[in-house]
Structures are given as structure tokens and as C-alpha cells.
Write a structure and sequence with these properties.
heterodimer; A: alpha/beta; Methyltransferase, Methionine Synthase (B12-binding Domains), Chain A, domain 1; Rossmann fold; 3 domains; 5-stranded parallel beta sheet; 15 helices; 5 strands; B: alpha+beta; Beta-Lactamase; Phosphatase 2c, domain 1; 5-stranded antiparallel beta sheet; 13 helices; 22 strands; elongated
Chain lengths: 343, 531
């Protein structure tokens, strides 16, 4: 047997093989062997486990893995994180402060937040991990009961931004600063600023660095009355809009378009992302989603060709909501529908 | 003519065209305000810079402090209307000292009111004792005094303190034990509200280990009143102005109310926590009969509660080598439903000591619930809250088989029948039904046996799954068909993943709408390799 490697690239490939084989014990062995070979816990968690999970997400988007395979892989990675922390427990907190880590309401992928919690614990923080899909009310209760120094929220879905705003409001009411992370907050964290978060970090390492300094109190973001009104209208009209769009998009197919759960799911997402884009007043948010739909291969889902009519139909139907209609007709969204523009 | 005016009037003009400005006339009122001016002398020589400056620059007036009084002057050029001598200026002077002093104190009073209002908001946004304490010192440091300390006695053996030094971002906190306070008896009396603050308190305070460096300069101690907690607010360093003490007292009252509210909340929250912890689904055991794999998922309707009317549990393997399990639903929601679910689980724990057969157990539980409900009959205290009385459930146990499979004994009352997901992807509904538990003395209990081959999964669920209203129209039930399809798509997944997948699909179906409690429990006979 050759000496165990500490190359994270090699380890990530080995780990991914174990995930592909649904081999929990094998995946745990890869992680623990790497630790024993001298690789740092943070590197195992972020470069091997999180790195492989990113690849899993890409395989799902490319249609080579099913959603259940993705779930199984995530489940195994959760077990691996537990095994790693049992194998190398974090030192006791050093008194840098207390932090609550939570996923936004509606975000069921807890793994990135859990990895962040583990990393912060290794930077001396006393961490409370609140788990996946934490409603703002539950966070408010936690703030009153345990009084953390700072809150970190994570989400990969920009459609959860209104939920992020409710969390920001809960934190402001208690005077606790809040930092945001994950793809939900935009490629450069612009939507974290929009919802009024006090800081943003692209990944767990950056979050640890951000939290090591003092957080400047940011301004209150740019969520205004128009954001709230038009977002709430879209949320209320979501069922009606989805049903109407489904009938328009798949007219003449002979089947009841409403019975096609994959299509109605995707149209629901389209309305959710539109609502989020309106909420932070950024056409770029919807444009990114439209481009992403064009690259994903899910059987029965919304296709690239169906996107433009859907977007144009929505613009006509929502003419009474000025920001929404302007956003749907904006250049970035229209370009994304034609498959041009920067990916 | 000018002598009779109460308003001060002064006339200036050049001694000759283009010459130096001299005083042409000044009435007695003007002479009182500017005694240095003598008629016929050069204005600049009197040394009133504001007046000289205004003259030179031909300003329309000035306001300046002269000899301790604030004077406001308005200039009128007498040549402007063309009637009189060239380049004469008439000055109307007014003593505005009192007016200005009044508005300056008004500005200060407004600033004070604003500080107190903002402090009130910030203090009451927090219901956590330590955070309130830290907020209290951070807000006041640099406003009431350069350094601010608050000490707090909450009836326990220790005294909490927080100190903020103006300019530093984070306050310092700590605890003093009763022993440490022995050297400060007067302070201790003042802290618990038994004696007023006297000068000795200040002396004792200086010796306590709550300072970065010994307090220098003025030290003011203000009592912090409160119903549940008491303390003192200590202001160190030169006060900002004469109003600092009354402002400090006002502030201390607000700090006291906020701290008491936080202390009360802490007591209530502790009570809630203990109750909630006893009602939450217990963690799943790892030691099960025949290595049975288990997974679960739970979403209460009221999510800030984290408990609800659905309940499940899997118990550790019994001496007889069986793994008992249970999933049920109390008719009702929220904390009242959770209390009944706790009663059901406790009753079963006791009944299991004497009976293991699931169907017999369920019949006994039915009687136990009916008897307990009779005790809750109207007339007993607390009956004002309509307590839920009925429940539906599936309970059973699992025993390992030699081939690695598992034999389940199931009993059900009024509950949706479980599903079995076979390793090859077929989904079967278990044919078992019974009547509501806790409703009728001669309730009908359904019983069934299910054999799980290696890789087969049995899913128990509550009607919160199938009766979730959502979908494209927002009005449709999720329904059995969708649940069966979701299950069929989970072939090869471990039981925890199956539960999470169903919950996720359900979340998508609900699209953020309200829902009933949802509980899922999956039992899987292991295959050769764990996944």
C-alpha cells in the first residue's frame, strides 16, 4: 500500500467515488485516513467534503445524477462530518464570542451551514447550530434566550431573500449583527447588502476571517415599500400564475399541464425568483436564474425554448406592478432568455 | 428723540466722506449694552470686534457675545432711502442672552429625550439578561460618562457586571462571587435595594476587580430599580454637563425595567424549555433489532414552538430482541396537542412493562386515555382550556430475521396505513385499519404483520403529509398518489434520506403555505452494505 495522500484533489476524487457508490463507510475512511495522514480538519471539511458536494450539485444539474442520488451523497457527507468531528473534536471555545449559525427559512440543505459551524468552532467560537430551514420567529426566540454576539445565515437559493430580510429584521430588533453567506446572496454578496446584512462571505474560510475583525454596522439595505408590495403580491398570486403559465407553455400537449409536477415546480421557481429579484430590485437575479434553467437538464422540466414566452406572458399579465413588469422587460432578462449575455 | 426708545439704537458714520467710522449717536439703552462707545470717538477704538467687523464689511447685522451678554444687531443704511446724510448706519441692538440660553437648554433637553428614547428601544429589543446588561453600558459610555459600569443582583449567589470604556467597541463583563463582595458590604446592601447609596459605596467600588484601571476622577453611583433584579449604574469620569445626574437617574430606570423584563423572560423561557424538551421527539437509537435502519423527519405546524400534535419514537432494543416504535397524531395543534402526545408516550412506556403485543398494548392505551380524560372532566381546574382527547397512531415492533430481513408487528387506530417500499421499487400499502384511540371504550384495533426483506423500507407517516394543501392551485391535497410516487423514486436510499426527500417534496408542494404537523418514520431492513 502506498503512503496515504494529503493532496486534496486526489482525495476529493476518491471521496466522490465513494459517494457515487453510496458507500458511507468508504467515504468516512477517506476522510479519517486523510486526517491521520496529517491533513487539517478544515481542509478535509472544505476542500474534500464541500468540494465533492459542489461536484455532486453539478452532476445533478447536468442530469447525470438523480435528485435521490444527490440526497444520498449529502446524507453520507453529513455522516462524514460527524465522524470527522468525533475523530478530531474542536478545542473548547477561546472566548472570541458566541455565534448562532442558521439556514434561511425554506433552505433544506444544511450541510454548508453545518460546515461553517464546524469551521467557526475551530476558530474559537462558541457555536450554536440551529439547523436547516429556520423560521425568523425561531431565530428571534433563540436571540432572546441565548443572546449570541453575532448571527450567521446561509442559503444557496436567492428565492429565499425575503426570508433573509425577516432574519435581518429579527437581528436588528435585538441589536445583534448578522452576516450572510452562500450563493443566495449573489456572486459578490450584492444581495446581502440589499437585504441589510452587516457582512457577507463567499465561503466558510472567508466567513471566519470576516468574523475575526470588527463588523461595521451597514445601512439598512434597499428593501422598500415597492419591494414588499410587489413581492407579496407575487407570492399571493403564485398559484394562479403557475396554473396560467402551465396552460400557456404546454398548450396543445393533450395532457393536463397541471398534472406535470416537474413543470409546475419549475414555473413556481420562476415566479419565486422573479419575486426575489423584485424584492432586491435587481434584474440580474432573474437573469441568472433564467440562464441557469437553460443549462439544466431535468426530464419534463421547463425548457430553454419555453422560457421566453413564459417571461413575456408574465410581463403582460403583471403590467399593473410597475417594478415587476419593468424587470421582466429589462435588457439583462431579455438577453438571458435569448441565451446571450455573460453567463 | 432716541433717548425715549427702550430699544438700543446706535448711529455710526464716517467722520468725513471716506474717513474713519465714528459714533454719531447712541441712546441710553445702547450705552448700557456697549458702554465703551462714546459719541464722537472712533468705533474701532472701542474694541467691539463684531461691530467693527460688521461695519467694515457692510454686513446687514451681527450676533456676538459681548461682556457676557449675547447681542443681536440689525443695520439699516440711512443713505439707501436717499433722504438723509451720506453713509450713516443706524444699528438696532437687542440683548438676546436669555432667549439663546433658553433655546440651548431646549436643544440639550431634546438631545436627552432622544437619547432616552433610543436607549429604550435598544434596551427593550433584547430579552436576554447578559445582552441587556452589555447594551446598557455600551449605550451610555461616552454619553453619560466616559466609563460606565452596571452591576446586577438577580437573587442568585453572584453579581453580574458589565463595563464599557468609551471608544472601545466591546464591553467587558464578569461575575463577582458573594466572597468577593464581602469586602464591599455597603455596596452589597445598595445592590439588593436594602440601603441607599452612600459615599462609602464609591470607596468600596474602587477596590473591586471590575476595572481595567482604578477609577480616577468623579464617580457617581445611581441605583437601578427593578421588580425582579436590582443593581447600580456607575458613571466614571468628568460628566458631560450639569444635567448628567438627572439623566443618569432616568436612564437607570429604563435599564431597570429592561433588565427585569429580560429576567422574567429567562424564567419563562426556562420553564418552556424544560417542558418542550420533554415533548420533543427523542433521538433515534443506534442499537436496533437485527440492525434495523431508522430515519425520521418532523415539522410542527407552529414552527417557533418546535413541538406539536404529531409524535414518534423508536425505543432501544428490548431484552426480547425487539425494537418498539410508534408514530401518531393527536387531534389538535400546538402546545395542548403536544401535552397529550407526551401523555400517550408516557402511558405506553408504563404499559410496555406489562405487555409487548402491539394490538393488546393499543387496546390498553385506549382505556388509559379514556380514564385520564374522565379526570380532565369539566369542573376540574384548567378545564377552561379545551384539551384534545383523541389520537390516531401506528405502533409496533421489529425483530430481525436470519436472512437479514425484519418482521414487523403493527397495530393501528384511526391512522393512515403505512407503506412498504420494496427493494425493487414496488410500493405497497399495508392493509390495516382501526378506530380512533381515546374515543370509545370498545375501540377497534387493526393488527398486521409485515416482513421486510433486506433493503425493504416501511414508512409511517401522519396525515399532515397527504392532507397538505398546495400545488399549482394552492388548494389540492398532496395525496396518497404523490406520496407513493415520491417513495418509488427513493429506491436505494437510506431511511433518513427517504424521510428528508418526502419532506422536501412536501415543502415544494406547500410553497410556503401553512400546514398541519408533519411526521415521518422510516424503518429499513439492512442490506449487506450500509449506505
Amino acid at each position: 500500500m502506498t503512503a496515504p495522500t494529503t493532496s486534496t484533489t486526489t482525495l476529493r476524487a476518491e471521496y466522490l467515488d465513494r459517494l457515487a457508490a453510496s458507500d458511507e463507510e468508504g467515504a468516512i475512511a477517506v476522510a479519517l485516513t486523510a486526517l491521520d495522514a496529517g491533513l487539517d480538519v478544515e481542509d478535509v471539511l472544505l476542500d474534500v467534503v464541500a468540494g465533492a458536494q459542489r461536484e455532486v450539485g453539478e452532476r445533478w444539474a447536468a442530469g447525470t445524477w438523480t435528485v435521490v442520488q444527490e440526497h444520498i451523497a449529502t446524507h453520507i457527507s453529513e455522516r462524514v462530518v460527524s465522524a470527522v468531528t468525533r475523530h478530531r473534536p474542536a478545542d473548547p471555545p477561546t472566548g472570541v464570542g458566541r455565534i448562532a449559525v442558521a439556514c434561511l427559512d425554506g433552505e433544506w440543505h444544511a450541510l454548508p451551514a453545518r460546515l461553517l459551524a464546524e469551521v467557526l468552532a475551530r476558530h474559537g467560537w462558541e457555536v450554536t447550530f440551529l439547523g436547516s430551514s429556520v423560521p425568523a420567529a425561531q431565530l428571534a426566540v433563540h436571540l432572546h434566550e441565548t443572546g449570541p454576539d453575532v448571527v450567521a445565515v446561509s442559503s444557496s437559493l436567492p428565492s429565499r431573500l425575503p426570508a433573509a430580510r425577516r432574519m435581518v429584521e429579527a437581528c436588528r430588533a435585538s441589536g445583534v449583527p448578522i452576516v450572510a453567506g452562500g450563493a443566495a446572496f449573489g456572486p459578490a454578496g450584492e444581495w446581502a447588502t440589499a437585504v441589510g446584512a452587516d457582512g457577507w462571505a463567499p465561503d466558510a474560510r472567508a466567513a471566519a476571517a470576516l468574523l475575526a475583525g470588527t463588523l461595521p454596522r451597514r445601512d439598512d439595505g434597499r428593501v422598500d415599500d415597492a419591494s414588499r408590495e410587489e413581492e407579496s403580491l407575487l407570492r399571493t398570486r403564485r398559484p394562479e400564475l403557475v396554473a396560467w403559465l402551465a396552460a400557456r407553455v404546454r398548450a396543445g400537449y393533450g395532457t393536463d399541464p397541471l398534472s406535470d409536477d416537474q413543470l409546475t415546480d419549475d414555473l413556481g421557481h420562476l415566479v419565486d425568483f422573479l419575486a426575489a429579484a423584485v424584492y432586491v430590485d435587481d434584474p440580474g437575479l432573474l437573469a441568472r436564474f433564467v440562464r441557469w434553467v437553460g443549462t439544466v437538464a431535468v426530464p419534463g422540466g421547463l425548457t430553454r425554448e419555453e422560457l421566453r414566452p413564459a417571461v413575456d406572458d408574465l410581463a403582460a399579465r403583471l403590467a399593473d406592478s410597475p417594478r415587476t413588469a419593468t424587470l421582466l422587460r429589462s435588457e439583462p432578462v431579455q438577453e438571458a432568455c435569448s441565451g446571450t449575455g455573460v453567463a | 428723540m432716541l433717548a425715549g426708545l427702550t430699544e438700543a439704537v446706535l448711529v455710526t458714520g464716517p467722520v468725513h466722506p471716506g474717513g474713519e467710522e465714528i459714533v454719531h449717536a447712541a441712546n441710553p439703552a445702547a450705552a448700557r449694552l456697549l458702554p465703551g462707545l462714546v459719541v464722537g470717538t472712533v468705533v474701532a477704538d472701542a474694541g467691539y470686534d463684531a461691530l467693527t467687523d460688521a461695519l467694515v464689511r457692510a454686513r446687514p447685522g451681527f450676533e456676538a457675545e459681548i461682556d457676557g451678554r449675547v447681542l443681536a444687531a440689525r443695520a439699516v443704511r440711512l443713505d439707501e432711502d436717499g433722504a438723509v446724510v451720506d453713509a450713516l448706519t443706524c444699528w438696532y441692538l437687542r440683548d438676546v442672552t436669555e432667549e439663546r440660553r433658553g433655546s440651548a437648554s431646549l436643544v440639550r433637553a431634546q438631545a436627552r429625550a432622544q437619547f432616552l428614547a433610543e436607549a429604550g428601544r435598544a434596551l427593550h429589543g433584547v430579552l436576554h439578561l447578559d445582552r441587556t446588561l452589555r447594551t446598557a453600558v455600551s449605550l451610555a459610555a461616552g454619553v453619560l460618562a466616559p466609563t460606565v459600569l452596571v452591576m446586577l443582583a438577580d437573587g442568585s449567589d453572584t453579581v453580574r457586571w458589565a463595563r464599557a470604556d468609551g471608544g472601545e467597541s466591546r464591553p467587558h463583563t464578569g461575575e463577582l462571587t458573594r466572597t468577593a463582595l464581602r469586602s464591599a458590604p455597603r455596596l452589597h446592601e445598595a445592590l439588593v435595594g436594602r440601603a441607599p447609596v452612600d459615599p462609602w459605596v464609591t470607596v468600596e467600588l474602587a477596590e473591586l476587580p471590575v476595572w481595567n484601571e482604578r477609577p480616577a476622577g468623579e464617580v457617581v453611583v445611581v441605583p437601578v430599580p427593578g421588580a425582579l433584579v436590582q443593581g447600580v449604574l456607575v458613571l466614571v469620569g468628568p460628566a458631560a454637563d450639569a444635567d448628567a445626574l438627572p439623566l443618569g437617574e432616568e436612564y437607570a430606570v429604563r435599564v431597570g425595567t429592561a433588565l427585569s423584563a429580560a429576567a422574567l423572560y429567562r424564567e419563562q423561557a426556562h420553564l418552556g424549555h424544560v417542558l418542550q424538551a420533554s415533548l420533543e421527539p427523542p433521538p433515534l437509537p443506534s442499537d436496533t433489532a437485527g440492525g434495523l435502519l431508522v430515519g425520521s423527519a418532523y415539522r410542527p405546524a407552529r414552527e417557533s414552538l418546535r413541538v406539536g400534535g404529531d409524535f414518534y419514537e423508536v425505543l432501544p432494543r428490548t431484552d426480547a430482541g425487539r425494537t418498539p416504535f410508534l408514530l401518531g397524531d393527536v387531534c389538535g395543534k400546538g402546545i395542548e396537542a403536544a401535552v397529550l402526545s407526551g401523555r400517550v408516550r408516557q402511558s405506553l412506556h408504563a404499559l410496555r412493562l406489562v405487555e409487548q403485543d402491539p394490538a393488546t398494548l393499543l387496546r390498553l392505551l385506549n382505556v388509559a386515555l379514556l380514564d385520564a380524560a374522565d379526570l380532565d372532566a369539566p369542573g376540574t381546574p384548567g378545564a377552561a382550556v379545551a384539551m384534545p382527547r383523541f389520537a390516531t397512531m401506528v405502533l409496533g415492533d421489529a425483530a430481525g430475521l436470519p436472512d437479514g430481513g425484519s418482521r414487523l408487528r403493527l397495530a393501528t387506530g384511526g391512522h393512515p396505513p403505512p407503506y412498504v417500499l420494496r427493494a425493487d421499487g414496488r410500493v405497497e400499502e399495508v392493509d390495516v385499519a382501526g378506530s380512533l384511540v381515546g374515543a370509545l371504550r370498545d375501540a377497534e384495533v387493526g393488527a398486521a404483520e409485515v416482513v421486510l426483506a433486506p433493503g425493504d423500507t416501511c414508512l409511517l407517516y401522519s396525515d399532515g403529509v397527504t392532507e397538505a394543501r398546495g400545488g399549482p392551485t394552492g388548494r389540492d391535497f398532496y395525496g396518497e398518489e404523490r406520496l407513493e410516487a415520491a417513495l418509488a423514486g427513493c429506491v436505494g436510499a437510506p431511511p433518513q434520506v427517504i424521510c428528508e426527500r418526502v419532506l422536501q417534496l412536501l415543502g415544494g408542494w406547500l410553497g410556503g403555505r401553512d400546514h398541519d404537523d408533519v411526521a415521518l418514520l422510516a424503518l429499513q431492513a439492512p442490506t449487506g452494505r450500509r449506505a
